[in-house]
Amino acid sequence: MKPEQLKRIFREGWTNQSVVDHRVARFIRGEFGFEPLRRAWKEALEKAASYGNAKQAIDMGTGPGTIAQFWAEMGMDTIGADFSSTMLASARQIAAEKKLDITFIEADVETPPFADETFDLVSSRAVLFTLPHPGYTVARWMRLLRPGGLLVLIGELSPTDPEKQKKAFRPAPGWKPSDVYREAMQQLPFREHSDKMLRVVMEAAGLQEITSIAMEGVVAARHEYEKLEPACGVLQGTPYVLVGRRP
Ligand SMILES: C[S@@+](CC[C@H](N)C(=O)[O-])C[C@H]1O[C@@H](n2cnc3c(N)ncnc32)[C@H](O)[C@@H]1O
């Protein structure tokens, strides 16, 4: 399949309302809505941001604004970018509920419509796996940074245990990916990737001082959450936050 076809198929998937509702329920109202976990994530992200002095941030593939909300809470002038209009509609609604001033724009994050050296911080969580050109995209994001700016890449190492995999990856209720969608997924180069691979891509893009943020606090809070919500699956993956600086 051509990259434009892949993009169209994924955009359709990410725009499906059941997929959006599931993400909001699982992450905004679920994991990130559980106060001890939200605090632990906030500490990890504050630590990442502390490597620079960010005033202007953009969160790529922001979905319902999961990570953009944290940058805005820290006082950064924040943009959330996504190519799904329905994700953005829920992101706007949630930001309004939380009284957070975030600008959401509809854009393809592989080709974001900004000039080089526009931001102090570029972030992305759980997005590179769904892009046809993740390496090119990381290099593009790095150029959006001003010198000294930070790229913060957040993700989850997949469990290797098949039982854990079943709990970790639950398709949105009400949405059944078509055969074409499944075939398209096979063509994604970062469908399965590790933080080690990301480090290599970040280095190749020219980022320096690449650091892994300690995630013990998030993991401990996930244990608490799982006691209350045994089916939540938050202990199945291993979270990581990588931060690199543009020289
Ligand atoms: C797994 S969700 C992650 C959402 C959010 N970052 C979070 O942590 O909850 C992936 C998001 O990336 C967006 N996305 C995927 N490919 C994209 C592209 N090429 N341009 C813009 N957004 C994209 C999807 O619409 C979706 O909102």
UniProtKB/TrEMBL annotation:
A GO molecular-function annotation: S-adenosylmethionine-dependent methyltransferase activity
Keyword Methyltransferase: yes
Domain Methyltransferase type stretches: 59-153
Gene Ontology process terms (BP): methylation
Keyword entries, A-Z: Methyltransferase, Transferase
The name this protein goes by in its record: Class I SAM-dependent methyltransferase
Domain of life: Bacteria
Organism in which the protein naturally occurs: Bremerella cremea
InterPro entries assigned: Methyltransf_11 (IPR013216), SAM-dependent_MTases_sf (IPR029063)
Keyword Zinc-finger found: no
Annotated Pfam families: Methyltransf_11 (PF08241)
